[in-house]
Amino acid sequence: MKNFSFKEMWQWKNITLSIQHLLAMYAGAVVVPILIAGAWKLNATQTAYMVAADIAICGLATLLQVYRGRVIGIGLPVVLASTFTGVAPMIQIGSTHGPGVAFGSLLVAGIIMLFLAPAFAKLNRLFPPLVTRLVVALIGITLIPVAITNWAGGDGAADFGSLQNLIVGFITLVIILIIYRFTKGFVQSISTLIGMVTGTICAAFLGMVDLSALQSASWFQLPMPFALATPEVDFGSVITLTVVGIVTFIEATGNYFGLLEDDERLSEGDLRRGYLSVGLSFILAGLFNTTPQTAFSQNLGVIKVSGVRKREVIANLVVIMLLLGFVPKLGVLATMIPKPVLGGAMVFLFGNVLAFGIGELGSMSLSDDDSMIIAASIAVGLGVAVMPEAFSNLPAWLSWITTSGTVAGTIVAVLLNLFFNGLSEKS
């Protein structure tokens, strides 16, 4: 597989598609360091650094995936950004032991992940077509609640579920659908971008766009190693964050397979390079004092909608994310998109991922056993996504399974496939 063309990167159509990817993932990426910094009671300067460093590391981590090297990089248009799975552990570790322990333990967990990556890659036989296509459907269906929450205004919003929020999200979704239905080619491929920009303009007229953060943001900031805290290590914290890393391996696996064409397959070497890149992203996050990364399903949705799978588009996105990380004033612009606008776009994106997964499953000749695997996996995955508090009393060593509906559903799918089909060629 050849690497991406630098000449093709700078074509204006590819740059426009890159901006669409940015708007789809940016708010979800930066909210993670904001939540963690708030829980740790960091001051405004420290929080601004953590957010800017986070988006810069997202860019570097994505580059590690999209560039196919001999040792690292799966060579697929995968976007890495902050994982919500790491929010609770990072908050707990930082609040109990201090941010230095959280960052130091994250760095060590990343090193451990480098050693785990080759072993995890050998498990690719556990992901036959039935399981991989089911995982893609799980990614879509378990993220729909996230989309609806944003549509209503976002978690904890004072106006959650207000008529204004619902109307703005609805307008965004309708515009996307109209553009997608009545246009072709490039315009159709950027329907999400057009919808989000139009939705944001409508929201601005309703007073839903806050410009205050733009005025206070600095013009330049260079991420530096250990800028917020001197690294320290706690054994229990390392184990906790290593488990977070294993969860990101599972999430990445679903995205990898979701990006493949019908005739493509992933080898053990491909998966190993991909997982090594995820491990390196944890090391970078610990080194530069920001948050752990995972493969972002929002961007899988953008690719399914646009039909454009060029790595040049994601390479452009890397450049943009690095620029935003170094120039916080520019980075703030993308955070101004109101949550209802994001929610309306997410419904479209995640719905398309779900539809793609269901379509791929429908193209298979399914037995009764296969149908049982699909039913149980989706039920568990959706249950965890909709009502995670139902599993709050699980012991700590088991609770990681329910940190994500995708992870829970995937584990059920793998285990049931082994139970019904084993490791036979049929499976």
UniProtKB/TrEMBL annotation:
Topology class, membrane: Multi-pass membrane protein
Q: Which PROSITE patterns match?
A: XANTH_URACIL_PERMASE (PS01116)
Q: Which UniProt keywords apply?
A: Cell membrane, Membrane, Transmembrane, Transmembrane helix, Transport
In terms of Pfam families, this protein maps to: Xan_ur_permease
Where is it chiefly localized?
A: membrane
GO molecular function of the protein, one example? xanthine transmembrane transporter activity
The identity of this protein, by name, is Xanthine permease
Which InterPro entries does the record cross-reference, listed alphabetically?
NCS2, UacT-like, Xan_ur_permease
Q: Which PANTHER family match?
A: PURINE PERMEASE C1399.01C-RELATED (PTHR42810), URIC ACID TRANSPORTER UACT (PTHR42810:SF4)
Per the record, GO CC terms?
Answer: plasma membrane
Family of the protein in this entry: Belongs to the nucleobase:cation symporter-2 (NCS2) (TC 2.A.40) family.
Localization of this protein: Cell membrane
Spans through the membrane: 21-40, 46-64, 71-94, 100-121, 130-148, 160-180, 192-215, 235-257, 313-335, 341-359, 371-391, 397-420
